[in-house]
Amino acid sequence: MAGRGSAVAVGVVVLLGVLLHGEVAESAVFTVGDRGGWGMGAGSWASGKRFKAGDVLVFKYDSSAHNVVAVDAAGYKGCTAPRGARVFKSGSDRVTLARGTNYFICNFPGHCQAGMKIAVTAA
C-alpha cells in the first residue's frame, strides 16, 4: 500500500511539472514588423497572426525617431496618448500581451496618423 501512495505522489508531482512547463512553453515571442521592425505601415503586421495572453511583442526601432506607447481604444483611434500611458523608448522593448485587445502607437508627430499603430488581440 505504501508503495502505491508513493507512486501516486510521484505521478502528481510529474503532472504538475508538465502542466507548469507547458504553460511557459506556450508563450510566443513576436517581433513587430518582422525584419523591418516597428515602423510606418506597421498596422497590418498583426493580420493573420494568432496571439495569446502572455505572448511577448518585441518592438525594434530607432529610438531617436520613434517610440511605443500603450494606449486604449480611444487613444488608438485618435492617435493620442492618454495621461499616464506607458511609453517605451529603448528601441528594443518587450511587452507582454494582456487578454483582449492591446493597442500601441508611436506618438512622434504624424507617425500614428501615417500608420504607425497596431491593435493586437490576445485570446
Automatic annotation (TrEMBL):
Residues 28-123 form the Phytocyanin domain. It comes from Oryza brachyantha (malo sina). The gene is LOC102714999. Residues 1-25 form the signal peptide. The keyword Signal applies. CDD domains: Plantacyanin (cd11013). One of its GO terms (cellular component) is plasma membrane. PANTHER family: BLUE COPPER PROTEIN, PUTATIVE, EXPRESSED-RELATED. Keywords: Copper, Disulfide bond, Metal-binding, Signal. It comes from the Eukaryota. One of its GO terms (molecular function) is electron transfer activity. The keyword rRNA-binding does not apply. InterPro entries: BlueCu_1_BS (IPR028871), Cupredoxin (IPR008972), Phytocyanin-like (IPR039391), Phytocyanin_dom (IPR003245), Plantacyanin (IPR041844). This is Plantacyanin.
